[in-house]
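Case study 2.
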Amino acid sequence: MGLIHALRLGFKAGALAALLGEGGAVHADPLRCNDTSINEGDAKVWLIRSCGQPTVSDSYCARIPQPLPAQYGYPTYQQVQPVQQVQPVCVVTEEWLYDRGPGNLVAVVRIREGKIISIRYGEHGRSEPR
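Prediction:
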């Protein structure tokens, strides 16, 4: 095995360990607005109060699997076990984009049921439209 290959493997293993951290959880960086930190789990109203209205927003129906009540068959000579069924349910999900200006990454905040469920960062903000 060459030195370059060994370095690549070591880098990949180190990067994976850093991503997984302790317990395997990966936490998003908070969104900073007006010296306030916005985190996953915060309320939508706190986001509006701290960061204002988004540059662009969208909403859609996210199909989330929800368990249905157990169904029982007619009694027979054998004990009938309930069957757990899952049905997708529409949960309104919003995505808000904050263009934080030149030199800053665009932030996309995903909101479901009034709570922030994710914060991710995209390309650098633009000072002029393309």
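Confidence is low (pLDDT under 50) at residues 5-26.
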